[in-house]
Amino acid sequence: MSNASDLRRIALAEFAAAGYAGTSIHRIADVAGVSKSAVLYHFTSKELLLEAAIAPAIDRLESMLIELEADSLTARARERFLLGFTDFLLDHRLEIHMFINQGPSLVDVPVIDRANALIQRLAEYFASNTASTVEKMRFGVALGGAAYMLCSQQSLEINDTPIDETRAALVTIMTELLAPVGAGANR
Q1: What is the largest CA-CA distance in the chain?
Q2: Alpha helices in 33-109 (DSSP H)
């Protein structure tokens, strides 16, 4: 019999593949090899199952944001955030997929509203801690681009790339994008 952790993992994969609206509790039960009532024993609704599936990622993002907000945006703070954000993206690809591809259609779902509020707070932090429009856009392109790339990687044919190589590439590219204006000859 599947436990709550297995059901969360299966639900997240199904939500990411078929969409939240297109995934039923019955489908999750079938994939888990249990009855619908067994799923409902652990999670009394599909919305609560969604919350349980993606809340750990949201909690982690919130912790990262609290740490970032507690410090000024120094080169060291940028690097620390960048490394943490890269690991966050790699560890929570399906959740990121949900935020990017389904967030706009899941308005008024509390866990998605919470995720969207954190993303807005992150954007506001960088907007208020960068001096120029170019720097503001660099953060948006670097962070949003990395998130989008990872959630759409199947279409980019990079699934077979070793995780260490993917991480190193992301860190290199985002570091280059996030170098403060004037830090390099071409900046």
Answers
A1: 63
A2: 36-42, 46-69, 75-91, 93-102
Of 17, 95, 105, nearest in space to 54 by CA: 95
Q: Using CA atoms, how far apart are residues 51 and 119, in angstroms rounded to an integer? A: 17
pLDDT 10s digits, 128-175: 888 888 888 888 888 888 888 877 765 445 567 788 888 898 888 888
**Region 1-44: CATH code:** 1.10.10.60
Instruction: Write down the pLDDT at residue 103.
Output: 78
Distance CA 29, CA 11 (A): 9
Instruction: State the architecture of 54-178 in CATH terms.
Output: Orthogonal Bundle (1.10)
The ranges assigned to domains in the chain are 1-44, 54-178
Alpha-carbon span 64 to 60, nearest angstrom: 6
Least Cα distance to 37 among 19, 23, 53, 25 occurs for 25
Q: Give the Cα separation of 87 and 9 in Å (integer).
A: 19
| Chain-centre distance for alpha carbon 122 | 12
> Whose structure tokens read 């996030």?
178
Would you give the DSSP letter of residue 105?
G
Per DSSP, 1 falls in state: -
